[in-house]
Amino acid sequence: MKHLVLGCAISMALLGCATTETVVFDANNVSEVAESYSQIQWIDVEPTKRVNFSINERNQKYQFASGISPIAAFNINTQGKDLDLEIISHFKKTVFYPNAVLLNENNQILKTFTTEDFEYQHAYGLDGDRLTAEVTIQPVGEQRVKLLLYTTPALIEEKSEIMHPVKLDAIARGNYPPDVPNPLIPHAQYGELSIVAKVDSAILVEEPLTVSSTDTAHQKFKEELAKNQPVLEKKELIPVMGTSLAVASPATLSAEQQQFYLSSIENAVKVGMLDKALALLEEAKALNVEGAQQVFVSAVNSK
């Protein structure tokens, strides 16, 4: 059973009204544990729509290989168009760290979402701290897709780091963030989540399934940094009495080297590696790289 609360979210960019639907799950028999996809109670979703919901003790449970978990299950109408799907889990005092399975209407698995597929997004504007994953689906004809959200016993035992509100406030004011430890938020069996399902006939997708992955972005950034960093370090080393000392002088940095710092700071923020971005910012300031602070603040505000 589900209960719906409909609302209207005004988007200044779209100059239109996108429906927001709140779903309250109420399983017929919460003590029973489903063991096959055919036993799951799927909730129909029509795009374009944002669906807010809780996963709690009233949700249906499913037996996964990793253990039993409460679930949220959606049957999404693609309308025969490319579907942009976003999964969001909101940080409160705890957070539900999701895994997910994407299936076709015949319950065949199209895609699995693991821990690495969810990216941390810091609070900005009306959006609080959250975990997100996105996928674009190219359906076959009018085929529907199913989304099954759950967590694992191992994930429940862990914690996730979020950016301290004091740091966010300093960045928003254009100041250097203070050196305070970031909070660690415990994972939980229950939590507050949303999904956003959008269709747009103008979207062209060459691959049927593509998903944004924090780890993939992080790895690409690290590879780019590693590829360029040795060149920079080699130019900064000067032999002194048989040893090599790093000279932190603005005169040793060429325009290319200064641009390396600016680009690296921006890219680190873009892929969510804020600690690395802050470390690069400190290095850049010590070397008097012009515009480093502005690049960092602009990158954070654009996320």
Describe this structure in words.
With 303 residues, this protein is of the alpha+beta class. The chain contains six helices and 20 strands. The strands form five sheets. Strands 1, 2, 5, 9, 12, 13, 17 and 18 form an eight-stranded mixed β-sheet that branches. The protein has a five-stranded mixed β-sheet with strand order 4-8-14-10-11, with no helix packed on it. The protein has a three-stranded mixed β-sheet with strand order 3-6-7, with no helix packed on it. Strand 12 (119-121) and strand 13 form a beta hairpin. Helix 4 packs antiparallel against helix 5 (274-286) and helix 4 runs parallel beside helix 6. It is elongated. The chain starts with a strand and ends with a helix. Residues 1-17, 202-215 and 230-251 have low confidence and may be disordered.
